[in-house]
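Assemble and predict.
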Amino acid sequence: MATNDEVMRSKKPDAALGSKKKDSIIFLTIIYVVCIILAVLSLWPFICMLINSTRSSTQIMSNAVSLIPGKNLTRNINILKKLKTFDAMTGLKNSFIISSCTTILTIYFSSLTAYAIYAYEWKLKNAFFAMIMGIMMLPGTVTMIGFYRTCYQLHLTDNKLVLILPAMAAPMTVFFMKQYLEGALSLEIVESARIDGASEFRTFNTIVLPIMKPAMATQAIFSFVGSWNSFFLPLILFNKQKNYTMPLMVSLLNGDIYKTEFGCIYLGLSITALPLIIIYLLLSKYIVSGIALGSVKG
Amino acid sequence: MFNLGKKKLVSYSKYGYLFAIPFFLTFLVFTLYPICYTLILGFTNQEGAIPPKLEILKDPLANFKYLFKKRSSGAMSYFLESLITTARIWIVNFIPQLGLALLLSAWFTDNRVKVRGQGFFKVVFYLPNIITAATIAILFKTLFGYPQGPVNDLLKNLHILKKPFNFALSKTATRAIIEFIQCWQWYGSTMITLIAAVIGINPEIFEAAEIDGATRWRKFWNITLPSVRPIMLFTLVTSLIGGLSMFDIPQLFATGGPDRASTTIAIYIYNTAMKKPYKYNRAAAASILLFIIIVACSSLLFYLMRDKDAAKLKKLKKEQLKSAKLAQKGA
C-alpha cells in the first residue's frame, strides 16, 4: 500500500518540475527506498533467526531483537541433542536421499518423454501431450485421499519409494523440456546418428541428453528444492520418525518440550534453512533466470 | 529431402510410444488411479480406523450433502467456512503481491532510469520462496511469539505497542500474518516472471510512445500492462491453484486456528481424513469439490482473458474497416 502512495507522490513533482534530471533523481530515490525496505523485510526474519540461534534462551527472553551474535551456539547445539525429538541428521539424510532420487528420476524420464513427443510422430502424441497439459496444474491435495488409502492398503506407508517413484511423471518438467528441445535440438543430428547406425535409445543417451544439459540443470534445481520442501505428502505417508524428512522434523519444533527453549528453536530452524540458503546463493544466477524461462514459455 | 525425413520419422513411431511408456505408467499408477479412487470414495461408506467393506451409500450424494449442511447452531458448514477462509486468504495475499510485482517490474525495466543492484534485489526478493514453507511458518510463529518475541519487542522498542500483543489469539492478526507470509514469499517470483515478460516487449513500441510524449504512467498503463496480460494470466492461474491448496503455512503457523480462522480447504480435508473419526469418504467428497472448483476457476479465467483479447481484435478490425470505408468515401 505504501508503495502505491509513493507512486502517486512521484507523479506530482514529475509534472511540476519538468526537468528530466531532477525527476529521474527523485524517481530513483523512491525506487531505492522501496527496494531497500523490501530487502530488509526479506532478510530480517532470517538474520534474526541466525543471530538468535547463537544466543541463550534467557538472552532471547530479555531482548529478542539483537544484531550482535551471542556465544551460546554450542550450548544450544547440546540442548538440541539432549532433547532428541528434533533429529537434524536423520532429517537431512532422509531429505537428501528422497530429493536426489526424485531429481534424477524427474530429469531423466522427463527428458525421455519430452524427446518422445518432440522427435517422433505417433498417433496418440497430441492426445498424450494434451493430457500432460491438463494434469500439469493438479495439486496433490486433490488426489491425496485416494493415494493415501491405496498406499495404506498395500502397506506402503513409511516407504520412501512411494515418494520417489511418482517423480517419473512430472508434467511441468516434461513441458519445459519439450520447449527447450524445440529450440535446441535439430532433428538432422538425430538423423545423422541413425545413418551412423546408432540405436534410438543410444542416440538419446549420448547425443540428445548432452544437448539438454542447461535445461536439465535448471530443472534439477527446481525439482530438488521442490522435493526438499514438500511437507504435505510426507506428513500423510510417514508415521515413523526415522523416516521423517526435514520439513517434518521442523514441525516437531512446534512441540511442547521446546516451548521455553527459544535458542533451540532458532537453531533448529537455522539448520533446516542454511543448506537451502547456501545452495541458493551459489546457484542464484541459474535459479533467477530459470524462473523467468519456465514461465515465459508457459 | 524433406519428404525423406518425414518418411523416416513415421517408421520410427514405435519409439515414440516406447519412450513415453515410463511416464504414462507412472502417471496411471500414481495420479490417474488415485484420482479415480478418490472419486469413488466420495460416494462410499469408507470411514473409521478400520473401514467396513467398500459399498456405495444408499444415498450416493450423502457425503456431498453433509459438506453443505448447516451446523446445529445454524452457522454455515465447516466445509463452506473453510472455502471462504481459503478464498479470503488467497485474494488478500494476491492483490498486493501482483501490485507490488507489477510496480517493481515496471521500475526495473524502465528504459530512462537504470536501477543499479537489480541482480541483488532480485536474489533477495526471491529468497523467501526457496526456503521450506514449514521452516518459514515456524519461524514466523516464533517471531510473533507472546509475551516475548522479536516482533513484540520491536514494536515495544518503537513505542507502537505498550503491552505485548498476543497475535495467536486474534483471528484477524493470524489471518493477516498468513496473508503477509504468502505475499512475502511469492511477490519475488511473480516479479521475476513479469520482468521477463516486460523485457520481451518490443522496445520500439516504448520508443515510439516516448516520441509521442507519453508519461511513465501512460506507458505502463497502455503498453506494459496489455502486453504482459498472458503472463499475468499464467501467474494468476498458478497462484490460484496454489492458493486453493494452501496447507503448510496455516497448518504450522496456527494449526488452522484460532477458532478455525485459518482452516483452509486442504487443512479441512487433512483433518477430516487423518484425525478421528477418519472420515475418508467425506474428505474424498471435499477433494472432488476442490478439484471441480479448480477446474472451473481456471477455465473461467482462461475464458475471460481470451474473450477480452478476441473482442479487442474484433473492435480493432471493425475500426480499420470503418476508416478504410471513410477513406474510400473521401477519395
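Chain A touches chain B through 101 residues (CB under 8 Å).
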